[in-house]
Amino acid sequence: MPIATVNPTTGETLKTFEPLGPDGIEERVAKADRAFRAYRGTDFASRSALLASAADLLDKERDEIARTMTTEMGKTLAAARAEAAKCAKAMRWYAANGERLLADEHPAQSDVEDSGAHRAVVRYRPLGVVLAVMPWNFPLWQVVRFAAPALMAGNTGLLKHASNVPQTALYLGELFRRAGFPEGCFQTLLIQSSAVDAVLRDPRVAAATLTGSEGAGRAVAAVAGDAIKPTVLELGGSDPFVVMPSAAGELDQAVSTAVTARVQNNGQSCIAAKRFIVHADVYDAFAERFGRAMGGLTVGDPMEESTDIGPLSTEQGRADLEELVQDALGQGARALCGARRPESRQAGWFYEPTVLTDVTPRMRIHREEAFGPVATLYRVPDLDAAVELANDTPFGLSSNVWTRDEDEQRRFAADLQAGGVFFNGMTASHPALPFGGVKRSGYGRELSAQGIRAFCNVTTLWYGR
């Protein structure tokens, strides 16, 4: 895949970039290594000031970078602005809390003495150069949720971004430099996926983080395992959205949230709700309202404020989504709305919001992640069936449950196989809350204390009597 900005609204190639050759890669890896040796010795106050400066720059340039993101991957302009604002917020959160999260820990004195010491300390020290392999769907946020904690901890970063968002990738590299970070602290590598192996194997690279497809995660994990380097992986998701009868009085709110949860980012989000599991007692009412609301969304130019859903990011992405839908329809599924390209859009990679019912386990969409505005709707008779169906997926990123029954909440909290369970609301990421999944959704956690400690050397300091 060429490194290029291709506008998914029109299909027009706007700008292409030459990938870095071996000499360019070597120059940047060496620079990152040199920067780490000096930057690791800076104090938290200095790093905090630099992150805050980057947040200020991003706030000032929010509209400009939002237009770049929309042009490169098709998210609505409103969503792009919100993403930039969220990134600035995360930078400020780590600037304010990083020192506290990485403060020395002091074991109980009785345990210290039992170990034969008079004093012991647990200290979090930076690992080194961290390689980040990032996707196109949240081209700022996916990077910043790694970069802010990593830089605050004293690491340096190398970014291999998706090939279809090169201008956003270059902006990020320049953002941290312009904010005052020392040269080499954070750099963008415009390279093909085939070059990642050599970079990750380089002994100067200490660790890696990847957000992306299951295949990409397997490849990076295999190399990192062979090189014995730590990784954090956030991969695909097929999150359930469960609605129980105790939420009947809030059905309109549940439907509104369900629509947003499915079509956020044009439906191209790992943590978007994709499988809607509804108790039989409220199924008919939910299905009617959900299908009507999804079918009423406006598909169009993502630069227009009135647009709800823009194009999918790539032509291949739309083709993959169409294959899943046609496979389901061919095996007996029904479409409450959509299931086609909009007739009004002759150019670009648009697809109508779609709700499929009568989905069965033999259909591909029951097992595979639908990366676009397509929802599957299931009827279940009771709580046990809801839990069983919610867990009937190879993924386990997050989940949403609408219930006001505390016993049901305890059951879902105990038994759902996911990295998060969101009750009576929509899955969202926040810098103070750990984020990640289980099963084939990956391992490790981003954000919160877990995120900043993920790329730290947890060091025991032991002082004999």
From TrEMBL:
Domain Aldehyde dehydrogenase: 3-460
Domain of life: Bacteria
Pfam families: Aldedh (PF00171)
Signal peptide region: none
Keywords: NADP, Oxidoreductase
Family classification: Belongs to the aldehyde dehydrogenase family.
Name of the protein in its database record: NADP-dependent succinic semialdehyde dehydrogenase
